Amino acid sequence: MTHAPRPHLLFTFGLLASLACGGDASTGVPTDGPTFLTAASGAPAIAASSVTLWAVKGRDHETIIWYRATAGRPDSSKLARLRLDRRSLCNRVDGSAIADGDSVRITMTVIDPVRLEVKFEPAGLQFCSGRPAKLNLWWEYTSRDYDKDGDVDAADAALEAKFSIWKRETLSSPWVKLASVLRVEADEAEAELVGFTSYLVAY
Which CATH number do you get for residue 152? Predict the structure, then answer.
């Protein structure tokens, strides 16, 4: 896949708010909502659109949604990765505490393959204060015409500095921008989560 030239700079935006079990660190909801990225023409297929993890409190965990490997590349690429440390699991959906050794079934599902929106379940699961889950999303296989003006140029490259992970609670809820760390040279965004909903990269 051919990418338009762009500076190999690291744009890092610190996580701006202290996280607690009440919600993810957000930077507000814009009036007009985000501009969505879209999957590139010719992007590889997603290897499995849904993956499941049995997370056990007291253990570190990682689960990934992968693309299928493309010709000429030794490895496949990531779309989404969730990481939990041994103390991340806090409360179940019903509010009851999760004890050491207890397990929770976690599912990641690509619910929109065009905007690359990933939904996490169970909704209502909470992670402990100071021990958030970490979500990484990659935009490697999105169209580089970010401003949708019909060409790929320096203006599109500049927009990458505005990318962030966004969330919405339900299909009818507004999108909320999360404080994110960007690694533009890797087409990667990272955010900390204290609960589950749906996420994607936008600006």
Answer: 2.60.220
Query: If we measure between CA atoms, which residue out of 189, 135, 184, 136 comes closest to residue 160?
Result: 184
Token couple for 65: 């949604």
Number of domains in the chain: 1
Supply the range of the domain harboring residue 146: 26-202
In a domain, 2, yes or no: no
Give the residue, 113 or 18, on which the prediction is more confident: 113
**If you average pLDDT over residues 119-133, what whole number do you get?**
95
Starting at the earlier edge strand, list the strands of the sheet with 133-138: 61-66, 78-84, 133-138, 188-193, 181-183
The span from the CA of 72 to the CA of 2, in Å, is: 13
pLDDT digits (tens, 9 = 90+) for 162-184: 999 999 999 899 999 999 999 99
pTM for this prediction: 0.84
Considering only CA atoms, which of 45, 26, 14 is closest in space to residue 175? 26
At 13, is the pLDDT very low, low, confident or very high (cuts 50, 70, 90)?
Answer: very low
Find where tokens 């992670």 sit.
127
C-alpha span between 9 and 11 (Å, rounded): 6
3-state secondary structure (DSSP) of residue 185: helix
10 Å CB burial of residue 82 (0-12, 13-18, 19+) is: buried
What average pLDDT does the structure give for the chain?
A: 88
